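Supplementary Methods. Inverse-folding protocol.

Structures were first reduced to a discrete structure-token string of length 216. This string, shown here, constituted the complete conditioning input.
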């Protein structure tokens, strides 16, 4: 959940649906074996590089932050929605959760071994995304890992497309275009995973997972 001028409206919208959101998605990783495997690989890469702290940016009610903790990472969560953070703290009192904007993180340069941005950039207007990715790169140590998830489009002529989202306007991205933006921020793609939608999915969009590392 982020944005620049769009942040207050998006934050307020998620505050309003926080309880329902937490109830609906608390076990969303259960039926996602490929995503769980990629999260496990992300955790292994972070540990291999020294096991620095990991920020789950746009953490919502904290269930994925807790999953990262279960994978052996020193993970904490950041979200713009105070209501989401309150739910995360209640559900996972042993972990750290902070209210904050992904566009201006209260984290020192190079302090993190990893950043997870799981569907948390989807509300970011296209003109703002490069600045957001630069902020992710700023807080990562050289060699640090970024795992970013979003919805994908195959239309090369329109590398970003907006779509109606239950909470706020959202965007999907061309994988190659997004990879180029990561590269421009000093983040080198190391792997990608594209998953086709299930026939029962509400949105018939492919899902994109991009793994990248901060340049040395």
């Amino acid at each position: 959940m982020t944005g620049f001028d769009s942040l207050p409206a998006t934050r307020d919208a998620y505050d309003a649906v926080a309880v329902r959101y937490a109830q609906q998605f608390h076990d969303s990783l259960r039926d996602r074996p490929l995503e769980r495997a990629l999260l496990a690989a992300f955790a292994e890469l972070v540990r291999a590089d020294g096991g620095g702290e990991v920020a789950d940016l746009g953490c919502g009610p904290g269930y994925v932050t807790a999953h990262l903790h279960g994978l052996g990472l020193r993970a904490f969560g950041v979200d713009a929605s105070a209501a989401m953070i309150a739910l995360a703290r209640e559900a996972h009192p042993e972990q750290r959760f902070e209210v904050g904007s992904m566009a201006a993180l209260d984290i020192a340069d190079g302090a993190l071994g990893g950043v997870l941005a799981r569907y948390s950039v989807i509300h970011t207007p296209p003109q703002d995304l490069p600045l957001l990715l630069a902020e992710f790169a700023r807080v990562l140590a050289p060699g640090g890992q970024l795992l970013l998830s979003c919805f994908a489009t195959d239309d090369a002529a329109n590398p970003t497309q907006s779509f109606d989202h239950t909470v706020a306007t959202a965007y999907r991205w061309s994988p190659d275009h997004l990879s180029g933006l990561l590269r421009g921020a000093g983040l080198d793609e190391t792997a990608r995973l594209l998953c086709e939608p299930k026939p029962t999915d509400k949105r018939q969009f492919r899902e994109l997972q991009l793994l990248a590392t901060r340049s040395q």
